[in-house]
Amino acid sequence: MRPTRFAPLLLTTLFTVGAVQAAEVQMAVAANFTAPIQAIAADFEKDTGHKLITAYGATGQFYTQIKNGAPFEVFLAADDTTPARLESEGDTVKGSRFTYAVGTLALWSAKEGYVDSQGQVLKHNDFQHLSIANPKAAPYGLAATQVLDKLGLSAQVKSKLVEGQNITQAYQFVSTGNAELGFVALSQVYKDGKVTGGSAWIVPAELHDPIKQDAVILNKGRDNPAAVALVDYLKGPKAAAIIQTYGYQR
């Protein structure tokens, strides 16, 4: 029988120099949360001395990897249903699941002035490609399809959809010009209260199901002090302040 291979989109190790008796924690992080967790990691490692080994990817893919024995100890998902499912299946530490952020969807273009503040560019249909994340694997992609359904535009734009494997790839399609616009996580294009480049419509929350993002300690992290410390840190004021600067709610 061939061994299962795990290949998340991006694998990085974040570390603190000179940490004494530091533990390390392997965590799986939804791609939309890449920038915030990298900022949080710097403070966490400085404050605790623990080391993070972090993989970024699609929530649905991480579920499959976890079920197949991936070594992750903490999981930061892009939804609340996947961690709840893992919990119901006995793969998590009881009582460790909590909502660490509530995400916001944005329609974004790398071009200044291309996307208006009401998202009317979608109805005008004067574009060739609209990027979204795979709705079967990425909650932000599912939210995007719900928006199109609510606006009655699903059939109109169907032939123009370009699907990314996850929200990072959906963003890359737009940032590289392969799609004129796309649905991305607001956190990818937002910092300190403003869109950092291009143009965007911040999608009203009532147009899609809430994007509640839950974290959980997995069974492999049950006896790891770094896993417990990380979850506690994510609940604290320093992490909350960083999370909010990227357009998330708590």
From TrEMBL:
Q: Which first-to-last residue range defines the signal peptide?
A: 1-22
Q: Which key words tag this protein in UniProt?
A: Metal-binding, Signal
Recorded protein name is Molybdate transport system substrate-binding protein
Task: Say yes or no: keyword Repeat present.
Answer: no
> What is one Pfam family matched by this protein?
SBP_bac_11
The organism encoding this protein is Pseudomonas kilonensis
State the family it belongs to. Answer: Belongs to the bacterial solute-binding protein ModA family.
Tell me which domain of life the UniProt entry assigns to the organism this sequence originates from: Bacteria
